[in-house]
Design a protein that fits this description.
Number of strands: 13
Helix content: 25-40%
Distance between the termini: 76 Å
Strand order of the largest sheet: 9-10-8-11
Order of helices and strands: HHHEEEEEHHHEEHHEHHHHHEEHEEEHHH
Shape: globular
Radius of gyration: 28 Å
Length: 478
């Protein structure tokens, strides 16, 4: 045995040996495609995945003596419903479900009414010359199941909100084509914020009247609808700590980041969410207009130029509205179901906190990374989201494994550098006075420090107790 062969055996390395495709006497000299095309192609895995190969890949050969030592993850055949394309990319094949008779009936088509409008602000069919009644396809039974208020027309919606109907029409820009004519006429305050890793983000904060309406929609409507169990961001009773706990002590941590999470959720998807809750098309359209944003034509560009505004051109969820996190979580419900099922098939855990996706599992998951990563990319793309590939990370136990700011190597813990920095600030406040440490000119420095101490106490009570003792010794008259 040569030295390099002995060294590869000690480290468990196995060369990727290309095996010849099985001969097919019925197709001699042809494309060499047998009954199982995935075994005959022998194509490489997608280059945008990690530089690892699945243990079940046809490019990897194992001695017969090692086949009896397969791990449970390898024996489970992690590719039961997957196929490989000619290029070698993993393709997820969904399980087709036969449609049963007697299922939920399809929604009724709109009704054209001759004569006067069936309700105020009814839509007019320009091709037929009649008004369209879109208020008859609501599902009262479904609304009652979710314990939601029942209304079918814009006037009933206005009465529930507590505003005159013409005032509500003004909020959705019914008199200006659904889009504000100028920045001053918009119902949002627009502010550009620099991203930490470059670029700018548009913050759209609703003005007083619209914010009151959106808060009512959130409290009395959206809060009654439960999100998926793997979603932990902006959900009552869940936090970054509950998001990190399933990943504590795992050997491999796989992190993804969704690009432009809020702006990806379009007006049509928001209307579909309200329709799925049981509201009629007319009411769903009005609720969608109240919870989405359309930019005015004279909005000023950021330093990057007009390209920075491209993701915000179509009507979208505004980052800054109280209803946007709840609607974004509901729009990602299907993605959470599929990614959670994918993780379970590999004996792994999956959670999502807003736009941060995390999958963790045992050391055996290392052999399946070349399969999991392209499948995650495919599922996210099919659910009409997009990944920021620059933020994808694969972490292992010998590294610091960080999930939404929580260290999860052995137990949920705070980052040591953040703890040391906060401890130094509190010590200097005690020695030199708090006015010398407020370098960022925070308005309420007292409660700002209290909030940071509470964050540390949530993750590590012992360290939080030490910081609280330093905070109590500060003389706030200096």
């Amino acid at each position: 045995m040569g030295f390099f062969s002995w060294l590869m055996q000690q480290f468990g390395w196995r060369p990727a040996v290309r095996t010849a495709p099985p001969k097919n006497p019925d197709n001699a000299g042809g494309n060499n495609t047998g009954k199982d095309p995935s075994l005959a192609r022998g194509a490489n895995v997608s280059p945008d995945t990690e530089n690892t190969r699945s243990i079940d890949s046809p490019l990897v050969s194992r001695p017969s003596s090692e086949k009896s030592r397969l791990t449970p993850l390898e024996k489970s055949d992690p590719l039961p419903n997957h196929r490989r394309r000619e290029s070698g990319r993993i393709r997820l094949v969904p399980n087709r479900r036969t449609k049963k008779r007697g299922s939920r009936p399809r929604s009724k088509p709109f009704v054209e009414t001759k004569g006067s409008a069936p309700y105020r602000y009814a839509r007019y069919g320009s091709q037929t010359g009649h008004y369209l009644d879109l208020s008859r396809d609501g599902d009262v039974a479904r609304l009652q199941r979710f314990n939601l208020p029942v209304f079918h027309t814009p006037e009933e919606l206005a009465n529930w909100i507590g505003l005159p109907l013409n005032r509500l029409a003004w909020l959705v820009h019914r008199f200006s084509g659904g889009r504000p004519e100028s920045e001053s006429a918009a119902h949002y305050h627009f502010r550009w914020v620099k991203k930490r890793l470059g670029g700018s983000r548009l913050i759209e904060s609703p003005k007083t009247v619209l914010k009151t309406v959106q808060s009512k929609i959130l409290r009395e409507l959206l809060d009654n609808v439960h999100v998926h169990g793997t979603s932990h961001g902006f959900v009552r009773g869940r936090s970054i700590l509950t998001n990190a706990r399933p990943h504590v002590g795992q050997a491999i941590l796989l992190k993804f980041d969704l690009a432009n999470f809020y702006t990806t959720v379009s007006f049509a998807r928001v209307v579909a969410i309200f329709r799925s809750l049981g509201y009629s098309r007319e009411v769903a359209i009005w609720l969608g207009l109240l919870t989405t944003s359309a930019l005015p034509g004279n909005l000023r560009f950021q330093g990057e130029g007009p390209y920075a505004i491209v993701p915000y051109l179509r009507r979208h969820l505004p980052q800054g509205a109280p209803t946007s996190p709840a609607l974004a979580n509901l729009s990602a419900f299907g993605m959470d179901i599929r990614l959670s099922g994918l993780a379970k098939s590999f004996e792994a855990n999956y959670t999502r906190y807003a736009d941060d996706l995390t999958i963790s599992g045992p050391s055996d998951m290392h052999y399946a990374l070349a399969t999991i990563i392209p499948l995650v990319q495919q599922i996210v793309r099919q659910e009409r989201f997009s990944l920021n590939n620059g933020k994808r990370r694969v972490l292992r136990a010998h590294q610091r494994m960080n999930v939404t700011g929580v260290v999860v190597n052995e137990r949920p813990n705070v980052v040591r550098a953040d703890f040391d920095k906060l401890k130094a600030i509190l010590t200097n406040c005690q020695r030199h006075g708090p006015s010398t440490q407020n370098r960022n000119q925070v308005d309420d420095f007292y409660h700002h420090l209290q909030g940071r101490i509470a964050h540390v106490s949530m993750l590590n009570p012992e360290r939080g107790r030490k910081l609280s003792e330093l905070f109590q010794a500060i003389d706030w008259t200096k």
